[in-house]
Amino acid sequence: MKTSSDVTVVGAGPVGLLLACELALQGVRTTVLERLTTQADTIKAHMISGRTFDMLAMRGLGPAITAASEAETSRLAWYRASTGHFAGLFKLDGQDLVVLSQQALERVLEAHALELGVTIHRGVEVTSLDFDSDYVVGCDGGRSTVRKLAGIDFPGTGPSLTGYQAIVDLDGELDRGWNRTPTGVYASGPLQGRIMMIEYDGPPETREPTREVLEASLRRVSGRDVRITAVHTATVWTDNTRQAATYRRGNVLLAGDAAHVHSPFGGQGLNLGLHDALNLGWKLATGDSELIDTYTTERHPVAERVLRNTMAQVALTRPDPQARELYSLFSDLLELPEVRRRISAMVQGTDIRYETGCDHPLAGTFVPGLDLSAGLGTSIVLDGLEADVRPDGYISRITT
């Protein structure tokens, strides 16, 4: 399909929709192309970080997200007090997690995109790219067609485990929350009937797990005499860990899972992709090639750190005796306030600082609580000093 847009975004997941909103705020004609005809109902992320909420709230989306979160939180009373986790160690602090399924977030962002005049076409599959036309951004997931068509390398490590997530009807009892066992990891909740299993015996043999496959895995990992009587939705995942060598090749850019894939440990993937979109949108709208190049410069190291820490979490949760002792040691280390603060900030992304050329310690950091709903930057007074804030909420300069 040919479009007359200045930018075509491929993928109508939360990253693609948020990027489209960011571009539309800047007056860029934007079209979103989505292969699926309807929203996917597979199990995905069910929370966003406090930092992500702050960034979306600066665009005026706070009330809509809060309303959607409250509707979902009412079903998760026992989970409200949960902190963020690292390798299943629920000891992180300062997370301010917001309960919000990826599907609910997509609905909020799609409504916002349509209000801003974004055109969304569903049931459209991209099969080729025109490298001499307007910008194209691949937000089309880990198997990104856009990335492959652009010839962007995707190096990394292959899968070593099989993970399942499903919503089922269950006959039998499971311990709530995360549970490590001699054969792997399983979790129950926070939604009624939601289960997760991880077995460290190689990559998945199928992408469409049957009831029998899920039940056998659950019984092996939990050691419980449980039966799955019905499967409402199920997905399989692994720890395939890869990152695009560059996020830009000519007029083609990548964001979200198209740029980086990793295991879901720590719940960082959705937040990482949304922050990509907020970093890229205002830069791409300028058409300034040098500024657009800073998208890779700034965001590539951030994702690289997420890839490293998710690989570490996989290592910590393996069921072998050595990993179990390492897990125990790491649990003790997280009792130390300095360690806990550092890991918490890393997982939530609150310690990100972009290079600005300004020596002030706050330069390059995020400023929460600002109204940037117009998608423009602003100037503020910070500690008695004048500071320039970019459209994505990060300080670009402080006058000392």
Automatic annotation (TrEMBL):
FAD-binding domain location: 131-310
Requisite cofactors: FAD
GO molecular function: monooxygenase activity
PANTHER family assigned to the protein according to its UniProt record, in alphabetical order: BINDING MONOOXYGENASE, PUTATIVE (JCVI)-RELATED (PTHR43004:SF19), TRK SYSTEM POTASSIUM UPTAKE PROTEIN (PTHR43004)
Keyword entries, A-Z: FAD, Flavoprotein, Monooxygenase, Oxidoreductase
Coiled-coil segments on the chain, per record: none
Protein name per UniProt: FAD-dependent monooxygenase
Top-level division of the source organism's lineage: Bacteria
